[in-house]
Design brief:
Elements: H1 7-10, H2 16-31, H3 35-56, H4 65-85, H5 89-114, H6 117-134, H7 138-158, H8 162-181, H9 183-187, H10 195-215, H11 217-224, H12 233-254, H13 262-277, H14 282-297, H15 300-320, H16 325-349
């Protein structure tokens, strides 16, 4: 078993008592209210906000788009104010639900008034960029990163810049990997509270976009305008593979493993082979990169997302093969034998350290 160090092992001796006091205080705060009470309180806040928005939106009929924009901005401002008043569950969920409704009113009003989906996408991008910095809530910051990333990709697609959309997707992947790789250092900065939700939002944007491209390609093309040029899947796969290889190199460095040694060569060769075999399905190497980050950051959420999407993209890869069912079966059998052989080689060549008890 691999060694799992405790806080005592990784923190200086002078910080043990403050760290222990912080952990105890967090546990006491979490245990103050039962989980089912928090769920019911949050549900009540969402119901209350829905009634409020329904009442305020009664006058927002067709022809009142300007009023919807103004009302949406007022609701967003009120949600920010309410969220800053306290951290209890009711106020938090009330502000979140109300703020999301306000965002919908504002974006919908801009889209109908301008009669341009490009303007609506730009308004979404600007609004989410502002909320990412001014709205003090982890969930909203995650949603702002997700909605902002999707708005950027949709905007590029609507502007007949499909190639730039794919380049931007690789750029968002680079940003997500850098945020996770430098998470500890960045969280100590002035905007440290933005790092984790923004990183998760960008990863979700990446996986959702690749899912749309792989599984719903016809709807994806017709939705965002047909006839737009885009990068071949193989080129996008190679771009995502470069990002994953860089992250693997950084992880090897941080774990005191020699990237040029046997460990590094084995890891790079396996990732490169995976990218070459799945050129037509870029989601496989992208989800593998997320899996790498999940293991490195010990994030259960990242690991769960990566495993689910690897299975989804793996199924898509299987159905994309232009082979007969017999050939596909033989390919699955052969790949399984290769993976078992690789596992046997890794266990023999790099035995795991015994767990210290």
């Amino acid at each position: 078993m691999a060694l799992k160090p405790s806080l005592r092992d990784v923190l200086p001796a002078a910080t043990h008592d403050p760290a222990r006091a912080t952990l105890v205080s967090l546990q006491d705060a979490a245990a103050g209210t039962p989980w089912f009470v928090r769920i019911l309180t949050g549900f009540g806040a969402w119901v209350a906000s829905l009634f409020l928005i329904a009442f305020l939106s009664l006058g927002m009929l067709v022809g009142q788009e300007a009023g919807a924009i103004i009302l949406g901005l007022l609701i967003i401002g009120g949600a920010i104010t309410v969220r800053r008043l306290g951290n209890n569950v009711f106020l938090t969920q009330l502000a979140l639900a109300t703020g999301l409704a306000g965002q919908g009113l504002f974006i919908g009003g801009v889209g109908v008034l301008s009669e341009s989906p490009e303007v609506a996408a730009m308004a979404t991008l600007v609004l989410q960029a502002v909320l990412l910095f001014v709205y003090p809530d982890t969930t909203q910051r995650f949603l702002s990163s997700l909605f902002g990333g999707l708005a950027l990709l949709i905007l590029l697609r609507l502007l007949d810049a499909g190639v730039l959309m794919d380049v931007a997707l690789v750029g968002l992947t680079v940003l997500a990997h850098l945020l996770f790789l430098n998470q500890g250092r960045l969280q100590r900065g002035a905007r440290g509270e933005l790092v984790t939700p923004a990183a998760f939002g960008l990863v979700t944007t990446l996986l959702y976009s690749l899912l749309m491209r792989s599984w719903l390609h016809d709807a994806y093309v017709s939705l965002f305008r047909e006839g737009t040029a885009e990068l071949p899947p193989g080129v996008l796969t190679l771009g995502l593979a470069v990002v994953t290889l860089y992250s693997a190199w950084r992880v090897l460095q941080e774990t005191d493993s020699n990237p040029g040694g046997a460990t590094g060569v084995t890891a790079f060769a396996a990732l490169g082979l995976l990218a070459v075999l799945t050129l037509q399905t870029p989601g496989v190497i992208a989800a593998t990169g997320v899996l790498l980050l999940g293991f490195h950051r010990r994030s259960v959420v990242l690991l769960g997302m990566a495993v689910v999407f690897i299975l989804v993209f793996g199924v898509g890869y299987y159905y994309d093969l232009q082979l007969s069912l017999l050939a596909k079966s033989l390919a699955l059998l052969g790949s399984g034998l290769v993976l078992l052989g690789l596992r046997f080689f890794i266990l023999r060549r790099f035995p795991a350290a015994e767990e210290v008890r």
